[in-house]
Each structure stands twice: as structure tokens, then as C-alpha cells.
Write a structure and sequence with these properties.
Structural class: mainly alpha
Order of helices and strands: HHHHHHEEH
Helix content: 55-70%
Distance between the termini: 56 Å
Organism: Paenibacillus terricola
Largest sheet: 2 strands, antiparallel
Number of strands: 2
Domain HTH cro/C1-type: 13-68
Strand order of the largest sheet: 1-2
Number of helices: 7
Strand content: 5-15%
CATH superfamily of the largest domain: lambda repressor-like DNA-binding domains
Shape: elongated
InterPro entries: Cro/C1-type_HTH (IPR001387), Lambda_DNA-bd_dom_sf (IPR010982)
Radius of gyration: 21 Å
CATH architecture of the largest domain: Orthogonal Bundle
Protein name: Helix-turn-helix transcriptional regulator
CATH class of the largest domain: Mainly Alpha
Length: 119
């Protein structure tokens, strides 16, 4: 895992822990992840954080692993026709609406092509 992801995980874990008002020991007790590993994760010094550990930590805080890793907002963009469209400020509901609209446009285009072929 690249170091910038480790730093993002560390920052997010520290923030979530502060928001929930819990200690690393409490997280360790509930998740089964050792105190030492959790400490290194929060400091950004754990060399590799496996998926199972991320799932346990994210589950404890009630967030998605993408939110813990910090990739959800980073990866929310669409590249098409050489254009990069930033979608990072869209909610999940808005992204679903956008996806449905794109499906509708594709259907409309294909329907138009099939009508032209019949004439």
C-alpha cells in the first residue's frame, strides 16, 4: 500500500477515534486487532495494512473501507473523451441518479440507431 494511503488511513483513524471518543485499547478489544498494530496504523508506520484489518476497523467505526482509506473522494471522477469530470462532491444518491441518466441516454441513442436502420 503506498505511503500516501497509509498516511490517509492514519489521519482518518485518528479523526474517527477522536469523534467517537475511544482509545486504541478499546478498539483493540472490540476488533481483535492488536494494540501495537493499531498504534502503528494510526501513526502511519505499519508497513502493510491488510484488507481484513481495514474491514475490522471500518466496521468498528461504522464506515466503508473506502472512507477509511480515503479513496472514495479521490476516485470519484469520470474520464471520457479526454475530459476528466470531478464527481467528488456528489452524494451517493446523486451518483446513482447520474448513472441512471447515463443508462437512459445510452438506451435512447441505441433506440434511435435501431429506428434509423429500419428506414
Amino acid at each position: 500500500m503506498p505511503s500516501n494511503n497509509l498516511n490517509q488511513i492514519a489521519a482518518n483513524m485518528k479523526r474517527l477515534r477522536a469523534e467517537k471518543g475511544v482509545t486504541i485499547g478499546q478498539i483493540a478489544g472490540k476488533t481483535g486487532v492488536s494494540y501495537e498494530v493499531l498504534t502503528r496504523i494510526e501513526k502511519g508506520t505499519e508497513p502493510k495494512v491488510d484488507q481484513a484489518t481495514l474491514i475490522l476497523i471500518a466496521s468498528y467505526f461504522g464506515v466503508k473501507t473506502d472512507d477509511l482509506v480515503g479513496s472514495s473522494s479521490i476516485e470519484r471522477y469520470m474520464v471520457t473523451g479526454g475530459r476528466r469530470i470531478d464527481l467528488s462532491d456528489f452524494t451517493d444518491a446523486e451518483l446513482t441518479d447520474l448513472e441512471n441518466y447515463l443508462i437512459f441516454l445510452r438506451w435512447k441513442r441505441l433506440k434511435g440507431k435501431s429506428a434509423q436502420q429500419r428506414t
